[in-house]
Every structure is written in structure tokens, then in C-alpha cells.
Amino acid sequence: MELRQLEYFVVVAEEASFTRAAGRLFVTQPGVSAQIRQLELELGEALLDRSTRSVRLTEVGAAVLPYARAALAAATGAQLTVDEMSGQARGRVAVGTVAAFSSFDLPDTLASFHRRYPGIELTLADAPTDDLVAALRTRQLDAGFVGLTAADTEPRPGIATLVVREARLVAVSAPGDPVLADGNIELAALRDRGIVGLRKGTGLRTALDDACTKAGFQPQIAFEASDPHLVAQLAARGLGVAVLPAAVAAAHRDEVRTAAIHPRLWVRIALAWRSESPISPATRAFIGHVRAAVADPAWSHPAGPRP
């Protein structure tokens, strides 16, 4: 049994396709198939059901999968631990982020980590919170900055989090909007207004939807976008009212009118990682770096006092 065979098996299981797995592994599809066939011969059981268009795990395959992942993690961890102890920390950390966080703290965080650990490769992808959590579970990401709402009082199964920022949400609209003229707005006043919002699956959108439901109405979403700065720009053109972090609104202060929402709405940005499986020394180094940064008062400040 070879580590390469286990790696190919895990990737095929995650992609449910030999073709997609081959693309992700940068090898040919026949090569992937041959290695998994050899693994199945050595184990004496079929691990994958190839009878349908989508490749599925057999009962045996589902039982073997967590052990295959653990074996790969252990092998990677052993090498990275040696590198770390020898003062040559190496490896790779795949990081995901929600768009709202990428605009202020994240670039400095990644840059300072790279300076401290030049031998560790960082990759970055942005996606909604739900997609980031799913990618953590399938090991496509090692860590991710996700959005948490007031309803997220319990940790997600298998996921650990570290809150890195708390952001107050404000209403944003075109400069001439009379509803926001005095700098304050009741959430209920948005009942009959068109909303420019982020897509479903983001922490900001979930916070808005949950708050509106609690207030007895559903928001009328007129436009959706994945970038909070684009959302602010659409609101500035009179296409609707946006609900955004105060820090994002402040970046567009010259083109929008901003108002505090009552009752106050907040969203938290948290670093998330897998808690029920081994993580690599490189990922541990990244988590430790972020934890130290959060403890530094100069690094991150909540946008205003807590409610």
C-alpha cells in the first residue's frame, strides 16, 4: 500500500469523479484508475462503485476513507514536524476567506506570516461561508476566515473557530436618500425597500435574513453580488439599501449615506479549521500566527462598542 494510492483514493472520493480527480492531481485519468485498482487488489475489496455516472464510495470505501485521510495527514505531519524542529518550516496552507474580511486585515496578516515562514506556501481563495466550511470538511482548505452571526452560538460539528473581528452592520444608500437622513434607521423601515445584498451562504446575508425574520418580514432583495464593495457601489447609485460592515461603508463615505440600524446588527469574522482530524504543522503555525495577531491590540478593533 502506497501513500500515493491513498491520496488518489481520497481525491476521487471527494470529487466523485475520476476526471475531476485527475485534473486536481495533475495526472492522467488512467493513472488514477490504475493506482486505485491496485489499492483495491491489495485490500481485497472494492472501494468505489463505478456503476453510475457519478463515482460513489462502497460501504467498505466509506469505512476506509477516514483512515486514508489520517494516514496522509500523519505522513505530511511527520515531514513538516522535522522541518519545523530543524528551523526550516515548510509546507502549504490553503486559506479561504469571505470577501468582507479580505478588504482590510487579511493582506497584512498573510504578508507578516510569509515574512516569518518563507518556506510555507500560502494559497488563497474567496467564497461564501457555507462553501468555505464545506471545503474545510473535504480538506480542500486548511483554514478559512468565515462569517458568524448572532445565531452561531454553538460550534459547527468538527470545526473549531477563533473570532478575529466583530463588525457592526450599517445601512448604506444613495446620498440623497431621505430615509437615512438623520443617521439612524429602524430595521422595520427596510420592509418595503429594495435591498442590495450579498449572496446567500455569506455571514452578512445570513445576519440580515435572520434579523428581518425576527422582525417579522423577509427582505426584498433587488440585487445580489459577492463583493461587499460592489454592493456599496450599487447602493450608491440608488439601486437599493445595502446592509454592510461599518468599515466597508466607511471606504465609500464620499459616495453613500450611512445610518446606524436599530436594533443593532453585528457579524463576526472567525478563523475556522478542522478540529476532529490532525492538522499539519504548517497549518498550526498559521493558526498560531493569527491567534497572536488577534491578541495584539494594534491589529484589529471592533467597529464601535459592543451592543
How are the secondary structure elements laid out?
Blueprint lengths: L2 H13 L2 H8 L3 H15 L4 E2 L6 E2 L1 H27 L5 E7 L1 H4 L3 H11 L3 E7 L2 H9 L5 E6 L10 E15 L10 E3 L7 E5 L4 H12 L5 E6 L2 H9 L4 E5 H5 L6 E18 L6 H15 L12
Parallel strand pairs: 3-4, 3-5, 7-11, 8-9, 8-10
Antiparallel strand pairs: 1-2, 5-11, 6-10, 6-11
Helix pairs in contact: 1-2, 1-3, 1-4, 2-3
Would you mind describing this structure in some detail?
This protein has 307 residues and is of the alpha/beta class. It folds into two domains: 3-84, Orthogonal Bundle (Arc Repressor Mutant, subunit A), CATH 1.10.10; 89-307, 3-Layer(aba) Sandwich (D-Maltodextrin-Binding Protein, domain 2), CATH 3.40.190.290. 42% of the residues lie in helices and 25% in strands. The protein contains eleven helices and eleven strands. A hairpin with a 6-residue loop joins β1 and β2 (56-57). The N and C termini lie far apart (57 Å).
Write a brief structural summary.
This protein is an alpha/beta fold.
Helicity level, as a percent range?
A: 40-55%
Total tally of structural domains = 2
The CATH architecture of the largest domain can be given as 3-Layer(aba) Sandwich
What's the CATH topology name of the largest domain?
Answer: D-Maltodextrin-Binding Protein, domain 2
Based on the model shown, name its key terms.
9-stranded mixed sheet, Arc Repressor Mutant, subunit A, disordered C terminus, D-Maltodextrin-Binding Protein, domain 2, 307 residues, two-stranded antiparallel sheet, alpha/beta, single chain
